[in-house]
C-alpha cells in the first residue's frame, strides 16, 4: 500500500519534480505522505469517501478551505478525487500528555473557540451536519447489518444514546471539528494549528469540548477549566450536557472502531482500539448516570 501511495503522490499534476516522498505516521483513516517539490514541502492525503463513517471528501475540502482562510489550518494546494494536497507545517504533533499540559490547555481552548467563531462566516459551500446521536445510531444500524463480534452490546448502546440525547437538551450550532484527537493539533513553536477536517460539520460546540476531554483523559478540574475559559452560557446545564456529549464522543469512537474492524484495510489494531474506547465509555457512562441521580 505504501509503494502504491508513493507512486500516486509522485504522479500528481501539482508537482514538477517531487522528491523525498515519505509516508507519515498517525493516520488511521487515510494514507498521508510528505512530498518535497520546488523547495517546499506538502502533505498529500489519499482517501476516498468512506460511507460507513459518513466521510465525504467534498465536505472535507470545503471545511479545509474555510479553516485555511481563517488561519487555523494549512493552505489547500490541490485536490482531485481521492486526493487532498496541503502545505506542510513544520510542527510538533501533540500527544494526550501535551493536551493535558496546563500550559497548553488554555491555548487549545482558545483555538477551538476561534474555530467555532470563524468557520461559519467563512464558508462559501454547503457542508454536512454532524449530530453525534444520529451518527451513533447510523453506526449501530450498519453494524447490525454487516455483522460484528460486538453484536450483543448494540441494543444497550442504542438505549444509552437515547438517554444521552435527551440529557443534552437544546443546543446552538457552530461548525465543529468533531474529531479532537491530540494528533490533530500541531504546535510550530509559536502557534497551534488544527488539522484533518474529514468529520467537520455543524454541531453543538460542547461536542468539540467534550471530545477533547474524552480523547485526552482530562481530569474533572481540567474539564471545568475548559468550560470556564470557552465560555459556556449556563454552567450547571452545560456541565450536564457536556458530560452527555463526552459519553456520546466515546460511543462514537467505539462504534467507529467496531466498523473499522470490519471495513478498513489499513494496518492498525482496531480490535485493541475498540477495547480501549469501550472501557473508557463504560466508565464515562457510569459517571454520567451518577450525575443524573
Written description of the protein model:
It is a single chain. With 293 residues, the protein is an alpha+beta fold. It folds into two domains: 2-90, Phosphorylase Kinase, domain 1 (2-Layer Sandwich), CATH 3.30.200.20; 93-292, Aminoglycoside 3'-phosphotransferase, Chain: A, domain 2. Helix content is 51%, strand content 15%. It is built from ten helices and ten strands. Strands 1-2-3-5-4 form a five-stranded antiparallel beta sheet, sandwiched between helices. It has a three-stranded antiparallel beta sheet with strand order 6-8-9, with helices on one face. A two-stranded antiparallel sheet has the order 7-10. The chain starts with a helix and ends with a helix. The mean pLDDT is 94.
